[in-house]
Specification:
Layout (H helix, E strand, L loop, with lengths): L2 E8 L3 E10 L4 E6 L8 H11 L3 E11 L7 E2 L1 H18 L7 H6 L5 E2 L7 H70 L6 H14 L3 H18 L6 H22 L2 H21 L4
Parallel strand pairs: 3-4
Antiparallel strand pairs: 1-2, 2-4, 5-6
């Protein structure tokens, strides 16, 4: 499921922003963008997120704005002097004049600036954890809202399949009669009406129609749809179960289509297949 969460924490020295995004994925895939100050806490951050989110492609970004001079780089006077004296000695040996432009060059040399790496205060870490949890709560609200819309859509499409299944019933009597008339017509054309044994024909017709009987498939399809609706209302995670039920629904729809031998029923089968494809797409977004 997709979602977005954001939280902001402030300390006297800095403003910390946490952003977390999620996209649908069958696995838990977490990418992080964390400042160096919090790198040591990355395993704990990952664990915190994995406990809250079962799966999905997750992107976490943490960044901060420094409000005071904390962490600003300092000029390394000893290194600059050392560079200057070395360059001056070399210039004397080569008889080259050193002008005022040498200082910008020295400032670009390694270690001309130094940054004192501060330790992460425990209070700041506790605040950061709290705000990560806050961002996860906001993201979960997004996902919950999306889940409600998916639930509504799935129930609507299952209802459409059940309505199409009910409509199949109206074509059942005509389907059998059409098959009977077609077979009788073929026999009459090839053997003549007078040579047809009516009793034998009816017996063979019964055996033939048994191969095209779809009552069992209709019963199973209805049961699968009802089970699907029950599972939607059950406690998550139920995404995999819904996917399995959708596969069984597809199996019964395909069998009805192969046995139908009727254009009107085939149209209803196409409608059911179309609804089922949309259901399968949606079940991929369910935990």
């Amino acid at each position: 499921m997709t979602g977005y969460g954001k939280a902001i924490a402030e300390t006297p020295q800095k403003k910390i922003t946490i952003e977390i995004k999620s996209l649908n994925s069958k696995q838990f895939d977490l990418s992080t963008k964390i400042p160096w100050l919090y790198k040591e806490k990355e395993p704990e951050i990952r664990n915190l997120i994995s406990q809250a989110l079962d799966r999905g492609k997750i992107d976490l970004a943490i960044f901060f704005d420094i409000l005071e001079d904390e962490g600003m780089p300092l000029i390394n006077k000893a290194a600059i002097k050392n560079y200057y004296y070395q360059l001056k000695e070399i210039s004397n040996d080569l008889n080259i004049n050193i002008d005022d432009q040498i200082l910008p060059i020295i400032m670009r040399l390694p270690d001309a600036l130094k940054t004192e790496k501060p330790e992460l205060p425990e209070s700041e870490w506790e605040l950061l954890k709290l705000k990560i949890n806050d961002s996860l709560i906001v993201l979960d609200l997004f996902r919950t809202e999306e889940g409600r819309s998916i639930e509504t859509d799935l129930k609507k499409r299952i209802t459409c399949i059940l309505e199409a299944l009910s409509a199949v019933e109206t074509f059942e009597p005509d389907r059998i009669e059409k098959v009977r008339e077609k077979l009788l017509s073929i026999l009459s054309e090839n053997t003549g009406t007078e040579n047809i044994d009516k009793n034998r024909f009816e017996q063979e017709l019964i055996f033939f129609l048994e191969k095209y009987d779809i009552n069992e498939e209709k019963v199973r399809l209805k049961k699968h749809c009802e089970y699907f609706l029950e599972t939607i209302d059950s406690n998550p995670p139920n995404g995999k179960i819904l996917s399995f039920i959708a596969q069984e629904i597809g199996r019964e729809i395909n069998t009805i289509g192969s046995k139908a031998n009727d254009a009107s029923i085939q149209k209803l089968v196409v409608t059911m297949k179309d609804e089922l494809e949309k259901i399968k797409e949606q079940t991929n977004n369910i935990l």
